[in-house]
Amino acid sequence: MAPRVLIADSLSSAAVAIFRHRGVEADVKVGLTKDELIAIIDKYDGLAVRSATTATKEVIAAAKNLKVIGRAGIGVDNVDIPAATAAGVVVMNTPFGNSITTAEHAIAMMFALARQLPAADVSTQAGKWEKNRFMGVELFAKTLGLIGAGNIGSIVADRANGLRMKVIAYDPFLSPDRAVEIGVEKVELDELLARADVITLHTPLTDKTRNILSAEALAKTRKGVLIVNCARGGLVDEAALRAALESGQVGGAAFDVFVEEPAKTNVLFGAPNFIATPHLGASTGEAQENVALQVAEQMSDYLLNGAVSNALNSPSITADEAPKLRPFVALAEKLGAFAGQMVDAGLKGIDIAYEGHLAGLNVKPLTAAALAGVLRPMLAEINMVSAPAVAKERGITVSESRQELSPVYDSLMRITVLTDMGRRAFAGTVIAGAPRIVEVKGMELDAAFAPAMLYVNNLDKPGFIGALGALLADTGTNIATFNLGRVAAGDDAIALVGVDQAPDDQLIVKIRALPHVKEARALGF
Questions:
Q1: Is 208's pLDDT higher than 90?
Q2: For this structure, is 195 an active site residue?
Q3: Which fold, 449-525?
Q4: Which of the chain's ends, N or C, has fewer CB atoms near its CB within 10 Å?
């Protein structure tokens, strides 16, 4: 059955056509109320929105079949990402479709400030002709300070370099090589504040960036600095900026975004040389078309191929990677489930090692799947989308390692769990497209995963296999597969037995009572 997507906000006909051409059923239902959306959302695998439709916790809870929410645009304030993550729903946005448009808006606001264009327009159309009142400044040779030098910031830098401005940037994630590539000088925030004639902001709103231009920061700026914010409301302390505009510390400010939107009233409205626009950064026909087409492609790729692009709560997987990774994702989840079912004491850490060909692949999705497998016996609602966040919340240390050579297999994955009782390691590989267990407790074996399995750790003594087989026969438990591993004759040994009926507690008690048995568990996959 073809996947179904609900398009809840207006997308172009070309975007709708992409879904249908790719083999995804697309229903366009714009303007639904919250209750109407909740009533039908369980029929869909995907939900495509812009900014009008809100994917709340209640909507996501009702969406029993939902796999992906696609936001045609950057901001996802209208999507409850924690709820989506907990439900295993991938949330995607389209961060690059409106980058040029947003960067151009920031440049336009900078010009408008430098030449006081809005006020001059109002004055001139009122018949005043106040030519001497609107004395502007040239941008040529001025220093532009970027706070944030990512995709949009780098485009602004390129345009500013074309204006022959000197561009400096504060961005903790900007490498020296990248700074040279985009033509900026990397500086610390205090230096930027002291040197910049114009400051533009191009960073997301986080706990670290909230009020990054605080009253204290504004006091460190050059007197008469111009400030442009087309990024996110909350990056600048609005009340402090109003005071700085009135005192002349800040010579002008232009904002496209505000702490509260729609901004019907704001402390900045009416301030000297302040320009406001109603969140128009992405508002061009080209940008709206680009993000609509992009979200349709991304959602189709995910629903049809498992490719993940621009996800805010899941590792990225390209369309080329998806078929290569799929069997290893299955291995990671099953091997993780094996490890998780062997954990009795408090889980402190998880180490995942990748060997051979696998070490050269994109392993982030595999790590997420392995974490989900390990945590699922303890947290039934866990999934590979939510698992990394849950592990972090619970203070579980997660580490990865890679080794290009694997002594036996082309690719090997090893999961080691650290608990209050010590370490336990499990290894697996993929053979003929199917995941296999190849090592437990340092003992080699080769076993397929079965829906119901028995794990038995025993001393390798004569008669044990016969005793176990007889007990299973006596209880009516049919053996599907039987795989053995051992250290040496008479030493530690394990048996992994695939059975047709899930073992109950009474059977496990009887197995533990057999001679030479050290441990017995029922496993499910």
A1: no
A2: no
A3: Alpha-Beta Plaits (3.30.70)
A4: N
